[in-house]
Specification:
The structure is a single chain. By secondary structure, the chain is mainly α. Helices cover 75% and strands 0% of the residues. Helix 1 runs parallel beside helix 3 and helix 8 runs antiparallel to helix 9. The radius of gyration is 20 Å and the shape is globular. The model has no long low-confidence stretch (mean pLDDT 93).
Amino acid sequence: MSGAPDQLFNVHNNFYLGAFQASINEAGDCFGLSDTETTERDCFVYRSYIAMGSYELVISEISEDAPTALQSVKLLATYLSDETQKETVVATLNEWLADPVCANNATLLLMAATVFAHEGNLNEALKCCHAGSSHLELLAMSIQLMLKMDRADCAEKQLKAMTAIDDDATCTQLATAWVNLALGGSKIQEAFYVFQELGDKYSWTVRLHNGSAVCSMHMGRYDEAEKELLEALNKDGKDADTLANLSVCFFHLNKPVTRFINQLKVVAPEHVMLKRQSSYEEAFDRAAQGYE
């Protein structure tokens, strides 16, 4: 395995940074891998395709006799692409997780946690993450889930576990930035530096531009955030987080936001910002009725 880890580094590193096509391209240059490494490479390739919305390609290319890890990636693609299959996917994942033979498969745990998170079942998602407690990506996902639950204190403890394993890993660096953003105060500047360093060291992706912009907005630097977000928009005009962050940024700059919100409604009608906006509007309407 002397050369294989180096070959796979660019595959998973680009995936974590959000450079999905680059991850796919790097995978094409990986040769001489063992069966396990080949499966790992293919999982990142198909997860990259899922991230780019190519669900049907993933479903059609992963065969029924593929390893469990790839089958679980196929289940995620099915879940995201077909509303009628969601219950079946959840049931299948629960069945596989109950099987001792495959219950410890890291990719299966990741895919199951992702599906459970989409379902709003954060506790079950966390259980999956804790089952692979020494796996960096599972630890990173557990941090995301804890932050969604407003438990920055727990996320900080998980981050310590990640840094103990590999503090220089891109996964760990990104998780550090997420936690610092949640902690606020002077930690936001530290999070900003993380995104800057990753962008300068590797490549500036839509994900990194958004991370940097969110830090800038937290520090009241909306002009700087606007520049970052417009860079992200130039790279991907349909990225939901970019559109959501632009609407927030432009609001604070007293610029029109309607176009970004309308675009967001088209590309990601279930985006959390739209759901919050809808709930606020409904609450306002209910309150207004009392004055009619």
